[in-house]
Design goal:
It is built from 5 helices and no strands. The radius of gyration is 17 Å and the shape is globular. The longest helix is centred in the first third of the chain and has 22 residues. The chain is mostly helical. Helices cover about 70% and strands about 0% of the residues. It has one domain. It is found in: Endomembrane system.
Length: about 130
């Protein structure tokens, strides 16, 4: 198997696990801490807006290549294994949902960052 085939299989697994975590975050059988992690990771991964925009050289793709996969690995470990397998099976039969919550979260992060920068650099009267 070529390296390209391995990369494609890995990417499909990431997409499937993202949808599976989205399902896990909504299931009452999943513990609250696993739901929180699964929901946060799925919302971020499904969001059309990144924390670090992709147009920034090198670090723009850092979240796509490191943060999302590490978050998925952590959240998958928190969900009980039998339930995770059930969610993975269901995820292969579903379309990828749209991450509206992730979009709202990322917009809020950017607004807060802009406000913090304004506060930090706004001239203060003496």
């Amino acid at each position: 198997m070529s390296m390209l085939d391995s990369a494609k299989r890995w990417a499909r697994g990431i997409k499937r696990d993202t949808v599976a975590l989205w399902l896990a975050a909504r299931d009452p059988r999943v513990p609250w801490y696993a739901k929180a992690a699964a929901g946060a990771v799925a919302a971020y991964a499904l969001s059309p807006i990144d924390l670090i925009p992709d147009f920034i050289p090198v670090i723009g793709y850092l979240d796509d290549l490191l943060i999302v996969p590490l978050g998925i690995m952590l959240a998958v470990k928190l969900v009980p294994a039998d339930l995770m397998q059930e969610f993975r099976d269901a995820a292969t039969r579903r379309d990828r949902p749209v991450g509206k919550a992730g979009l709202v979260f990322m917009i809020a992060v950017w607004i807060l960052a802009a406000l913090a920068l304004l506060w930090l650099f706004w001239p203060k009267s003496a």
